[in-house]
Amino acid sequence: MPGGLSSTRRESGCAFWGVVYSQPHREIRACSHLRYQGFKSFLPLVRKTIRHARTFYTRAAPLFPRYLFVELVIGRDRWTSIRGTMGVAHLMMDGELPRAVPEGVVEAFLNSVDREGFVCLDDTLQPGEKVRIVNGPFAGLVGQLASMDSNGRVRVLLDVLGTQVSVTSTRVGLVPAA
């Protein structure tokens, strides 16, 4: 089944994580309104550096733009009300029931949240992997992870105009590149 859980598990009253698709740039609003309605919701956030008018600033940004997660129990929750929640475009469905995220996926993100509320994906990175720099002056560039040290510093090789350039950054400024 595409959602990862059998329909009998969803129908039997077990808790599972569903996927909510938000309106553009309304993920935080949708998450807070779902919580206000009594739903347990989770919006994975990362730090993102924005370049504008020769200045850089860092802000919280969704890891998956327009997507957030909500915990549901079919027999208990009034999940049909999610579709009318402010900031929500729709609830992802598998036929008549909400689509379930495979077990352990959302829990892994929840376990990787730091004390400031941001998801840290750098623990799984290994030298030689392709990585995307998400903050700092090189934000958005993709390179190869060359080395990591115990102080949280990394060296990334970037291909700039046909030449490999070595850049030093922090581990929290990297995510795996697709």
* CATH top level label of the largest domain: Alpha Beta
Element string (H = helix, E = strand): HEHEEEEEEEHEEEEE
Oligomer: single chain
CATH architecture of the largest domain: 2-Layer Sandwich
Rg? 19 Å
User: How would you sum up the major sheet?
Assistant: 5 strands, antiparallel
Low-confidence runs: 1-6
Strand content bin:
35-45%
Helical segment count: 3
- Widest sheet: strand order? 12-11-10-9-13
Task: Let me know the average pLDDT.
Answer: 83
Any idea of the CATH topology of the largest domain?
A: Alpha-Beta Plaits
Indicate the topology:
Elements: H1 7-11, E1 16-22, H2 27-36, E2 40-42, E3 45-52, E4 55-62, E5 67-72, E6 88-91, E7 93-94, E8 97-98, H3 105-111, E9 130-133, E10 142-148, E11 153-160, E12 163-170, E13 174-176
Antiparallel strand pairs: 1-5, 1-6, 2-5, 3-4, 7-8, 9-10, 9-13, 10-11, 11-12
Question: How is this structure best described in words?
Answer:
The chain is mainly beta and about 180 residues long. It has two domains: about 5-110, Alpha-Beta Plaits (2-Layer Sandwich), CATH 3.30.70.940; about 120-175, SH3 type barrels (Roll). About 10% of the residues lie in helices and about 40% in strands. The chain is built from three helices and 13 strands; from the N terminus they run αβαβββββββαβββββ. It has helices spanning about 5-10, 25-35, 105-110, and strands spanning about 15-20, 40, 45-50, 55-60, 65-70, 90, 95, 95-100, 130-135, 140-150, 155-160, 165-170, 175. Strands 12-11-10-9-13 form a five-stranded antiparallel β-sheet, with no helix packed on it. It has a four-stranded antiparallel β-sheet with strand order 2-5-1-6, with helices on one face. The protein has a two-stranded antiparallel ribbon with strand order 3-4. β10 (about 140-150) and β11 form a beta hairpin. The longest helix has 10 residues, at about 25-35. The chain is elongated and about 55 Å long. The chain starts with 6 loop residues before the first helix and ends with a strand. About 20% of the residues are buried. The model is unreliable at about 1-5 (pLDDT under 50).
